[in-house]
Amino acid sequence: MLVGNYTPWLVVVSLLVAILASFTALVMANRIITAVTPRQGQLWLLGGGCAMGLGIWSMHFIGMLAFRLPIPLGYDILWTTVSLLAAIVSSLYALWLVSRPTLPHSRLAFGALLMGAGIASMHYLGMAAMRMQPGIDYHPGWVTLSLVIAVAASWVALFVAFRLRHHDNRLRHRVPPAIVLGMAIVGMHYTGMAAARFPADSICGAAAGDGLHSQWLATLVMILTVAILAVVLLVSWLDQRMQSQLLRLRNQDLRSSLNDAHAELSQAALHDPLTRLPNRRLLQQHIEGALIEAEQRGTRFAVMFMDLDGFKQVNDAYGHQTGDALLVAVAERTGQLLRDTDVLARLGGDEFVMVVRIDGDEDVAALASRIIQSINSSRLVPSHDLQVTASIGIAICPDHAASERHLMGYADAAMYQAKEAGRNGFAVFAEWMNDSAEQQFRLLADLRSAIGSPQLFLHYQPKLSVARHMVSGAEALIRWRHPEQGLIPPERFIRLAERSGIINDIGRWALNEACRQLRQWHDAGHDHWTMSVNLSPIQFSAPQLLSEVRDVLARHQLEPRRLILEITESTVMRDTEASLRLLQSLARLGVGISIDDFGTGYSSLLYLKRLPGSEIKIDHAFVRELENSSEDVVIVSAIVALGHALDMDIVAEGVETAGQRAYLERLGCDYLQGYLLGHPVDPARFIQLHGLPRPRIEVAAGWKAPDGGDFLN
Q1: Which residue, 486, 509, 563, 591, has fewest beta-carbon neighbours within 10 Å?
Q2: Helix, strand, or coil here: 184?
Q3: From CA 375, how far away is CA 511, in angstroms rounded?
Q4: Model-level pTM?
Q5: What are 541-566's pLDDT values in tens digits?
Q6: What is the Cα gyration radius of the chain?
Q7: C-alpha span between 255 and 493 (Å, rounded)
Q8: Which structural domains are found in the chain, ordered by start?
Q9: Is 129 helix (H, G, I), strand (E, B) or coil?
């Protein structure tokens, strides 16, 4: 037997070439899947397969060069070319496989088998290129081991390349896997070489014929090795350049996006979405800044509170779209009369506030007159001839007050004096108005302190299911018992809360208290009862409403469908797209949505059918004359048909007589509310009256409840 030996430095070179080939495979796998177009991906696949195949083939023949026998050696050109093609085809298949969207275990195993067979074929075809005579005798055990190593190395290569193709592309994260794969490929080669046995009288037919001699093979392999090294270095350099450039561009885009998002959030948080004017929060900042300037420089400024006369009639007659167009036109017209240093803000609805620097009282009076005349004398909305005027109240700093709260309150009081004086005018705050203004301040202060105290409490009015003839839930109604003035009418303090901005705190408390009470009723066995809670327009537009509802449901462990949020029709139609988004989010949460006071506002059926409402609440205005008005019967019947067509329940409120109840039941209402069925009462009285099942009671038409009583009492 001929005994061979290896040149150590060529063995090391073969290992380095294998590592470079593995590194090339990892780079190309990433390039294929990140290609912008399919054609680019195909080019990366072709180039990468050739580079990887050349690398594996070069490693093989460098390993052959490292092998020395005591006879001349050469290599047949045809078989050498075939072995090169086997390496390239195996590499192309491997890169194609790892560029697929998925790589299940069965496909990975089959691919490793094919790739391993290709690499083994490349090796043994290269050995056959020597054309040894007699032929090489292979040891079966070592051959089998080399095949196993080839398949295992292929499995590892495919798995690693597939896992790393989406991950970090930096060199330090690719070199260790490339080293592991390169060592596996070299291990297969030298295991296959160990399987070869050369008889003592062997000669190399390729060396004696027209094959490539060792020196030519050395030159060819070195050229290929340098080419692979150049390709790898070029790809790595381009990859680094591209990644750094992409990272820089991504950071620039991210910084720009964050700046834009911050600007948009600031705009949304501090400006009115309809008119783009400053909102209440930003107005407070402007007034506080003007107060500091007035104190430091001794300047004067006026707070002008403007309210449109007849705006509600415009909304009722022409709809909210026309009303919104009117508000935008008023904002534009008023802004044209102000200086750049002045501030115009919208509080909500038809209320505007101006902060104006002044030198004399005649300046602010002249400005107010010009604003009133501008609004009254020209057509604000081109398509409609609207009769709208303005009433303005004026408070001056430091003449009248030196705080934001007092200036706003005094200007508001003066505006109401202008309205009481006949509207379409202005009034400057005077001391004789102080009583009513101070009274409002005290009431507002008392209301702030009442939040969370026993002064504020909820009463509950029953909601009767027509189908089951029993109470199905309740509506929570807020009450305030003032320690000195007794019960304050809700319409009085709710309006004050909305104007001052504390309605969100009150609404949050009411929602939590109603859900807490519902939890108690469920624990007492009434787990089918629902709770309806009214949302004010300001609370409905608060950005944290959705999270507050989610938190209160989790806090009291309530099913979302047991909570029904009542929103007035006009609130929904104020900003239809924003309302739709919020209502859809609440509906996805599972909360019931009730459209309150339906029929009293201006609705578009196009929007109504998109609303994820669960019930429509017919306003009591249509119920009141139901027994005497055929028109109201037709309207209620149409609302019932519309609601049922949209898969919504119908609730009729304000039921006070047995005749109204009979009509509503015949017309198909699902639920009824009103004094006939039960007055709003405290929780203990509610459970006493409605906690037990009651038999169905038929009441003769025309029957009236005694004074102080109700139907269920």
Answers
A1: 486
A2: helix
A3: 41
A4: 0.46
A5: 888 999 999 999 999 999 999 999 99
A6: 43
A7: 46
A8: 5-244 (no CATH), 280-429 (3.30.70.270), 443-690 (3.20.20.450)
A9: coil
